[in-house]
Amino acid sequence: MHRSHLSVLALVSLLAGCPVAGGEDPLPVPDFVGDSDLNLYLFGHFDAEDPVEMQQGVEALEESLVAVDLAGEQSGRRWDTGSLLTTADYGGATIWDGADPLDQIVVSVAGRSSHDVVEHGELIPLADQTPFESNSSAAYNRTLLGDGDAFVAQTADRLETMNEVHRQNAILNVWYDTTKVFRWVELTDGRKALVARAWLGEAFVGENGNNTLEQFTALEVRIPDTNGTVLYTAIWGALRPSLGDVVLSNSVANGIDQGWENTDLFLDAR
After folding, report:
1. Is 49 exposed, middle or buried (0-12, 13-18, 19+ CB in 10 A)?
2. Among 23, 75, 136, 184, which is most exposed with the fewest C-beta within 10 angstroms?
3. Does an H or E element contain 268, and which?
4. Of the candidates 236, 54, 237, 260, which has an alpha carbon nearest to the alpha carbon of residue 158?
5. Which residues contact residue 8 at a Cβ distance below 8 angstroms, ignoring those fewer than 6 apart?
6. Can you tell me whether residue 152 is helix, strand or coil?
């Protein structure tokens, strides 16, 4: 078990220097989602036996992002208003029993990559994920629990991984293990989107004994289009003790953007 560390000066910087909220209008909710939202639908239906369930979810997400400036300022492509993730939405994910939905911050960010989704998929089996993660990822080591080559070749639709992560920034200095599962989703026009979800099976105490990372649950969607790849990530996160929603949400949103930037730089250099 490990614990997290907070720098007061860096905390002030995070609070004052970053946007505290994103797009004021939530993403549209299609009728088939019901009383939930699209993030919860995609997370909970990730392993649905009927491929149409994920297909319609990804296509609805793509449609909802058409009017968003994916290359613009973060404030116009970020949402802090998503629904809380509860046990009813786990869809088979083995999130630890102590995860309290009321503790969650919810952050969603959309963006764009100039690289094709297939190129993004080729990075998934690599053991060292650190170069294309956020700047806070001091280490990100991946173990495959399936055939990575078959997944990249799209002859296997699903790939499960286990990941040992060292997250270190102004808010966190913590090692944690996270399950992350990837799947290809074929759309009605034949394109294949790449979807992933990740979660914690337990809470992880940081290096210095100050905080505990209790929740870091993720949904990631990458959708190919004529300009490269549409990117979308939603995070449900919780630290104890809480550092305030604004600080944690800004850190998460900025980390998402950094990871995307680092991924494109890595792909540019190949």
Report:
1. exposed
2. 75
3. helix 245-269
4. 54
5. none
6. helix
Please report, for the chain, the start and end positions of each structural domain, with discontinuous segments joined by +: 8-269
Helix (H, G, I), strand (E, B) or coil at 43: helix
Neighbours of 214 (CB within 10 A): 21
Residues of the chain with pLDDT below 70 are: 1-26, 33-35
CA distance 220 to 259: 12
Closest CA to 107 of 213, 237, 220: 237
Residue 58 CB-half CA count within 13 A: 30
| 106 vs 245: CA distance, rounded Å | 9
Q: What is the pLDDT of residue 10?
A: 34
- CATH 3.40.50.800 for the 8-269 domain, yes or no: no
Q: What is the pLDDT, as a whole number, of residue 6?
A: 32
pTM of the model: 0.90
